[in-house]
Each structure stands twice: as C-alpha cells, then as structure tokens.
Amino acid sequence: MSDNAQEVNYVKPADHQKFVQDVLCANGVSRENATIISNCLLQADLRGVDTHGANRIPTYIERIRNKILDPAATPVLTQVTPVAASVDAKNGFGFVAAHLAMTRAIDMAKEFGIGMVSVKHSNHYGMAAWMVQQAVDANMMSLVFTNSSAAQPVWGGRTKTMGVSPLACGAPGGTPERPFILDMAPSVAARGKVYKALRRGEKIPLDWALDKEGRPTDDPAKALEGVMLPMGGPKGSALSIMMDVFSGVLSGSAFAGHVGGPYDFTKPADVGHFLVAIKPDLFMSLDDFRSRMEYLYQKVVTSEKMPEVDRIYFPGEIELLNKEKRLKEGVPFTLTEIKNMNKEAELAGVEKMKYT
Ligand SMILES: NC(=O)c1ccc[n+]([C@@H]2O[C@H](COP(=O)([O-])OP(=O)(O)OC[C@H]3O[C@@H](n4cnc5c(N)ncnc54)[C@H](O)[C@@H]3O)[C@@H](O)[C@H]2O)c1
C-alpha cells in the first residue's frame, strides 16, 4: 500500500465487484441490476480497458444525483418480428438495457439463426466487448453498435459533430480461449484514454486529438476542449456516421450530435444501441466452424513478423491475456483513482473499496 498519488495499488476482483454493487444499490439500483453493471465494469478493468471500468462510477452516480439517469428504470422489450425486437431503456443504465437486448438477440438467433435488437433512450454501456463476450459465451457471433456524444469532426470539418462510438463484433474461436473480439472506437484512441491520462497526470500522443484552435496537442485537458481525430481519415469518420445510422437514426434515440455526453450533467444522454446475434453453425456444423476459426487464428498469429515485433496477436487476445494476469494479481489503480472512487462509498455510507 502506498501514499504516492500516482503509485499503483491492486484491488481483488471480489472487492471490486462488492464496492461497485454496494455503491449502486445505495443509489437506487436493484441488486439484480447492480450485479449486471458491476460485472461489466469488472470485465473492463480485468481486460485492461480501465478507461471504462470502475473509474466511471463517480460520473454515473453524479448522473443519478442530477436526476438525468433513472437508477430504478426497467427496460421494456417489444418483439417486432420473430427476429427483431426493440428495447426502450427508459433512461436507465445502458448496461442493463444492452444486457437484456443481447440476451433476447441470442434467444432469437438460437431459434431462427439471427436476432437483432434496437435500443433507444439508453445511456453509456462502457466497454462494448462485454456484450460480444456474452454472445461468445453462448456460442454466437455478434455485432454490437452504439452511438455517443459528439467528440470528433466529420472528415473535412473542424467541430465536434459525431461520437467516438465503438464498433464491436465477435465470433467463437477454435478453443474457448481464442475468440475473435474486435472492439474499437473509430478515433485514433478512445476519449476515455484522454480522461485516464488527465487523471494520471500523463501526456497523450500528438496524433490523438487537436486543441480548440485545431492544433495537435499532447495535453489531455486541451484535447478535451478540442476534438478527437478519426482513425484512417475519412474512413474513421464514416464509421462513426455508420454507428449513428444503426444506433441513433434507426432506434428513435438522439442522433446527429444530439446525444448527451457522459460528463454533461444537464440532460439525459438518450443513447441508442444496435445488437445482432448470429448462429455460427447456420451453414456448417459448429465443429467445422471452430476448426476453420482455429486455422484462421494460427494463420494470423504465425504470420511472418516485422523485425521489431515480438508476437502477433488475434483481435481481443491482448485483453484476454490481461484478464488472466489481473484475475491473479488484482486490478491496478492509482491511489488518486481509488480515493476518488471511495468518495462515493463515503457518500453512500457503504464499505470503501479495499486495496493492497
Ligand atoms: N460506450 C462508449 O460510448 C465508448 C466510446 C468509446 C470507446 N469505448 C470503449 O473504449 C474501449 C477502447 O477502445 P479503443 O478503440 O481505444 O481500443 P484499442 O485501440 O485499445 O483496441 C481496438 C481493437 O484492436 C485490438 N488490438 C489492439 N492492439 C492490438 C495488437 N497489437 N494486435 C492485435 N489486435 C490489437 C484490440 O483487441 C481491440 O479489439 C473499447 O472497449 C470501446 O468499447 C466505449
């Protein structure tokens, strides 16, 4: 245990989950929904996506305090056709609505080969990969889309217009340890990485963002006043528009830059999502699909390496290796981050998050 604000301390998975659940329940979330949310945040922190883990708790609770997120909302599902459903999240946690949506999409895919669910009036659902993993655990392929608040310009523009909205998809692998899980923001880096650098007093690479004058910056505070840069120029810009078409326009939620930001405590976010589950054994047996995935995995990871590369990874593999390590060692947080999260435990009158 250290008193140095930036030194890293470790939190056991069970203590992480207990802290998140207790704080959520003290703020009006049911135990059942708190279990879903705490599991999603723990998965993010275990996978090394610590931009979207328990560090988000203070801002989520601030939204509840400002009455712009309903902690007790129950999402309502409407079956539209045998393979399509819609969920009205009723301004509750995005995790809860998206979990319900993926559960229904999987059930439809089991019966009909494919299931798609559109979600409206939702909130931030954190790391998209947790829904892809939910599908993989049920032997399903998936597409997981969301829109988000304006943070990056469209190609050729200079003001925040589109969200840094992640595109995620996945498929079961040849073995359970080797699924394909792609989860990527359409920007050079997720904006959460800029917030993380700000929290930790670190600089950011110059190609991530522009300041409000349109100049490249390595200062996270200036980057947050400016815009995130799309990856791959017009292609990253088009992907963020694609997320808005499928998640915002199609669902009936906010779109075209009108989604409320996670750090804007003045209005509901009104986020939209779009989730699809697909049965991988529609056109061949599951065994054949898995052995073809294993062949693909081997082809990728044994590809001839560039001189400076030690190892080639399959999409999602680095995160699964992080998870293996963190399940043993615990989740690393700086003391500042732990103190910041524990302020919520104090306010809620529950036990603080334990760390070593
Ligand atoms: N809910 C929201 O509104 C929101 C918004 C933005 C980002 N996010 C989340 O932020 C997270 C981070 O996004 P990101 O774009 O910064 O991710 P990233 O750049 O760290 O990773 C993107 C993808 O590339 C793969 N990858 C990374 N390095 C690799 C390597 N060396 N070899 C092979 N594959 C590799 C990863 O497995 C991942 O699938 C995601 O989980 C995303 O869902 C959420």
TrEMBL record:
Molecular function via GO: oxidoreductase activity
Superkingdom assignment: Eukaryota
Gene3D superfamilies, A to Z: 1.10.1530.10, Hypothetical oxidoreductase yiak, domain 2 (3.30.1370.60)
InterPro entries hit by this protein: Mal/L-sulf/L-lact_DH-like_ah, Mal/L-sulf/L-lact_DH-like_NADP, Mal/L-sulfo/L-lacto_DH-like_sf, Malate/L-lactate_DH-like
Keyword Oxidoreductase: yes
Keyword Oxidoreductase: yes
Keywords for the protein's UniProt record, in alphabetical order: Oxidoreductase
Pfam entry (one): Ldh_2
Family from the record: Belongs to the LDH2/MDH2 oxidoreductase family.
Protein name per the record: Malate/L-lactate dehydrogenase
Source species: Exophiala spinifera
